[in-house]
Design goal:
The structure holds two protein chains of two kinds. Chain A is of the alpha+beta class. Chain A is 27% helix and 23% strand. The model of chain A has no long low-confidence stretch (mean pLDDT 87). The relative contact order of chain B is 0.18. The chains are: A alpha+beta, B alpha+beta.
Chain lengths: 154, 154
């Protein structure tokens, strides 16, 4: 029987998981938070391996959620002497957006998890085509606080 | 014979590669650089098809002798350090959760680096200093959870 990720594994890892939500292929970085039970660990690993074989074509039709980045920069202000680096933050989210996913971060704001769309393909035609791979469907309420207005269909 | 001794010495030092470093006043920067190494390691794992997930947190603590850094991807045997085990058990059984915090007691990176400091001979938990904790995927800071704040007074 296919098992979801163990709770302790979810807490200790920042897992890339993939699903369909409202007919849109999404990628979520779990950030030590909850991974829905519909996501089975072996199936998700198969998807990760499949995507690792696809060459990212440097698709420039990617949009980044600038409002979220501005908010994050304010949250990151601190006295550790290390400036917030947007490129470092964005690199995995842009990678999966280039593959055709709406890429979401399960960010921690005020000690609670909130999903924020980080990067997404600008056009619907660039969305990931599931020819050889099947993604589980999850309801929108699994993505706490996500604002779908950020991603408008074109 | 000499080469065997050198090889043994190198393997012992390599096992502490991310666990100890000379303190030079740039402790936070070293955790940040550890995150850089983790990102490289995860990226390379995709090329080798043995895909690794990011650990959720990288943390460090330092004494007047050494800096100890590590991540959340495994949990040590706390019974080897009775002082630390006792302090963790003050807030609840190790491996359990309590209402005040969403994370499992003993699963965080902070008790893990405290463990390595104490295994290395440091015996005063109260004088351990902790660096900022970082999320390896993005290089952003992570605040200490309630469990760590209560155990280590940070």
């Amino acid at each position: 029987m296919k098992q979801p990720y163990r709770k302790i594994y979810q807490e200790c890892h920042d897992i890339d998981w993939f699903a369909i939500c409202n007919n849109v292929p999404i990628h979520v970085a779990s950030n030590g938070g909850n991974v829905p039970s519909q996501i089975k660990s072996r199936d998700n690993r198969t998807v990760q391996k499949y995507l690792a074989n696809i060459e990212v074509n440097g698709n420039n039709n990617i949009r980044v959620n600038q409002d979220w980045l501005n908010e994050l920069e304010l949250l990151e202000q601190n006295d550790d002497g290390i400036a917030f680096d947007r490129n470092t933050y964005l690199h995995t989210f842009v990678e999966f957006a280039q593959l055709g996913f709406v890429s979401i971060d399960n960010a921690i704001i005020n000690e609670e998890y909130h999903c924020r769309i980080v990067a997404f393909p600008q056009n619907r035609k660039d969305l990931f085509k599931m020819n050889n791979i099947e993604l589980p469907e999850i309801p929108l309420n699994e993505l706490a606080g996500v604002d779908l207005n950020v991603w408008k269909e074109k | 014979m000499i080469q065997t001794i050198i090889g043994l010495f190198n393997s012992i030092m390599n096992s502490f590669q991310y666990k100890t470093a000379r303190r030079n006043g740039l402790e936070n920067k070293q955790i940040y650089e550890l995150c850089d190494n983790i990102r490289r390691r995860v990226k390379n794992s995709k090329k080798r098809k043995n895909i690794k997930d990011f650990p959720s947190v990288a943390a460090g603590c330092y004494t007047n002798r050494n800096l100890y850094v590590d991540t959340t991807d495994s949990r040590p045997n706390y019974s080897q350090v009775p002082i630390l085990e006792h302090e963790l058990q003050q807030i609840g059984p190790i491996g359990s959760k309590r209402n005040q915090c969403k994370y499992t007691i003993g699963a965080c990176a902070e008790p893990k680096v405290a463990f390595f400091a104490m295994i290395d001979g440091w015996n005063n938990l109260r004088t351990l200093k902790f660096t900022f904790s970082y999320r390896p995927r993005t290089g952003t800071k992570k605040k200490y959870c309630r469990n760590c704040r209560d155990v280590f007074n940070i």
